Amino acid sequence: MDKRISDFYLKQVTPVYIDDLRFNLSLKDSFFFAGSCFSNNLALWMKKRFIKQLQIPHGNIYNPLSLKDCIEMCLNPSLFNVKDIEKQDGLYFHTSFHSMFSQNNIENYIQTIEVLLNRAKDFLKKTGCCILTLGTAFVYQRKSTGLVVNNCHRLASNEFIRRKITIQEAVEQLIQIIKMIRFENPEAIIIFTLSPVRHLRDKATENSLSKAILRCAIEEIIDQRQVFYFPSYEIMLDELRDYRYYSSDLVHPSPEAIEYIMKGFSRICFSKEDLIHIEKLEKLISMFEHKALQPESDRYKDFIQKRTSRLKELKAQLPYLQWPEAFDFTNPP
Asked: Model's pTM, two decimal places?
């Protein structure tokens, strides 16, 4: 960067200096994502660049207790007990899973969940990196069972006790998560991050307290071998301290913010060679997203030929990526 531009930039923002994570990931690695909706944003960023990734099948997970339970279920799918399936409004559901999986046929529901859990188990046991995003220290504990649920499925609020977990409770859950992953996959790199999504349902003051509890808990466990922290939360609050970097709900990061945060992640995790490959992939994506005004023109036909040639070249250079079997040229990959 030009020094004049760099000096101007440093006077306009509070830069977040990211500690050396002491490892290099590769585009050959696979990435397992679990946690809040921000985790979903990060996974989609990698998916669009054809990097091997898998999101935990439970959907969004916000608190450390539910995160531990869900990862444990992935590593031991037999913990999914069909006796825990409930029915409401004609749909079957499980409080560990997102409502998007709910179905009106219990056999199909069970089969869907079992397939997803076994896929996650196989992936998690071989993945090179687990990225785990924490969202809130508030949990919903069911009065009838005393268990913390991952998803309330719009059940009556009087069925739950809402409470704030302690730092020590969070630490204990994170340690259990690390032990479980390490037992099945000793070499996996584990990266914790704190979601920048503001949980204003908890009120602004409770949200800041909640994030502080989670951040303190993460700090207690990151000195373990191959366990790290990536400052997504701090980047959003300091470097992107402006409402234009939030979506229209003023709570979730905008696509531009996600892109900025993932660029920072890539710079510290991938080699210079892989960063060049990522840049080439992004140019290829832009070519697929291009909308032709005159698709019958010779210029556009040349463009299609160039795009096909570039795709073939990159597939030969990067055969380990998750290339789709076929591309729909009317939509971005």
From this structure: 0.91
Under 8 Å between Cβ of 34 and 56: yes
Classified as helix, coil or strand, 90 is coil
Residue 148 phi, psi (nearest 5): -80, 130
With helix as H, strand as E and coil as C, how does 272-322 read? HHHHHHHHHHHHHHHHHHCCCCCCCCHHHHHHHHHHHHHHHHHHHHCCCCC
| Rounded mean pLDDT, 29-35 | 96
Write out the two tokens for 88.
Answer: 């409401």
Angle at 327 (CA atoms; ends 323, 331), nearest 5 degrees: 120
CA angle 71, 213, 247 (to 5 degrees): 80
Tell me the backbone φ, ψ of residue 4, rounded to 5 degrees. Answer: -60, -45
Taking a C-beta distance cutoff of 8 angstroms, is the pair 211, 164 a contact? no
Answer with the residue of higher pLDDT: 203 or 94: 94
Return the closest-CA partner of residue 68 out of 196, 144, 160, 178: 178
> Considering only 17-21, 94-98, 114-118, which range has the smallest mean pLDDT?
17-21
DSSP 236: I
Q: Which residue has the higher pLDDT, 333 or 289?
A: 289
CA distance to 79, 115, 287, 309, 314, per residue, from 306 (Å)? 51, 40, 9, 5, 12
pLDDT value at 152 more than 50: yes
Residue owning tokens 């916000």: 62
What integer pLDDT is reported at residue 332 of this predicted model?
42
pLDDT for 24 beyond 80: no
Residue owning tokens 């994030």: 211
State how far the Cα of 323 lies from the Cα of 317, in Å rounded to an integer: 12
Phi/psi region, residue 250 (left: phi>0; alpha: psi -120 to 50; beta: rest), is left
Largest CA distance in the chain: 69
Rounded distance between C-alpha atoms, residue 204 and residue 275, angstroms: 38
> What tokens does 267 get?
């710079």
